[in-house]
Amino acid sequence: MNSLSSKNTRSIILSVGLLAATIVACRSEIEQTPPTPIVNSITSDERSLKVGVVNHPGQLLASNCFQCHGTNGTGLEHLAGKSANEIVNELREMSAKNPRAEIMNVHAKAYTTDEMKLIGDFFSKQ
To answer: Which residue has the higher pLDDT, 82 or 5?
Structure first.
């Protein structure tokens, strides 16, 4: 039994040594290889497709709403076309409620009144 334990120990030590040598070799190779700029590998046509344009100051704030309400406010509950005041009032009501009751209460609680106004204005113009 002692012989088997000794062989296992030697195998483990050898494996750890090989792993360490591999890590050292890879690390030195990575450090010597200069990074390839990603921007240079993207054509101007591809770049224009990947860069988003923010046309409204509330769009970035409203992006938190996009998963459920859609990017243009026509998701699960339509926000598009509602008045900005209506959206702001709903957000204020939700922010005053228990955050554990509904997911929207948590979201609404995170915004200031000015941010709610920007979100409301964004969706009202969709």
So the answer is: 82
